[in-house]
Amino acid sequence: MVVEQPSMSRARLTRELARRLPGLHGAGQIWCARVEPFDVYILADERADRVRITIPVARADAHDHELLLVLLSANFDRALDAHYAVYDGLVWCLFTHALASLTPDDIDRALEGVLRLAANTGTTFSCAETRPSGTLGVEGGVA
Question: How would residue 55 be classed by pLDDT, with cut points 50, 70 and 90?
């Protein structure tokens, strides 16, 4: 027998996040927690049915085409469920998901993914322990 999970709401998300992120603060649609050495921001919008877990990791220079190519390449083959975005002059690691169907396991995977991607920014640009092989990378060609 399959037991249906109740839809995720902002109130339930707050409880789930508080279990995982000591020092969580915020209310309404935005929360923040410090997971050394990163600040983790969570935004939820019930009307749009979206949740976004984000970490700012670096300043972005619109003229740094090499970095932008690395980020796009990483989004394709290494970032997995998390990914990179550039917004308001910053590089962000983020995870997005429909709020209503978000599960506690999704929250765990999302936090692990964005934290690992943030930690690997500047080195492997990957969510994985090691860089996946046989993928198209910014270095060119198919491995």
Answer: very high
Q: Where are the domains of the chain?
A: 22-55
List the structure tokens of 76: 């394709």
Q: pLDDT for 131-140, tens place per residue?
A: 555 444 444 4
Task: Name the residue among 136, 125, 107 with its Cα closest to residue 42.
Answer: 107
Full strand arrangement of the beta sheet holding 25-27: 25-27, 30-35, 38-45, 50-59, 90-98, 83-87
The pLDDT of residue 140 is 41
Give the Cα separation of 97 and 90 in Å (integer): 21
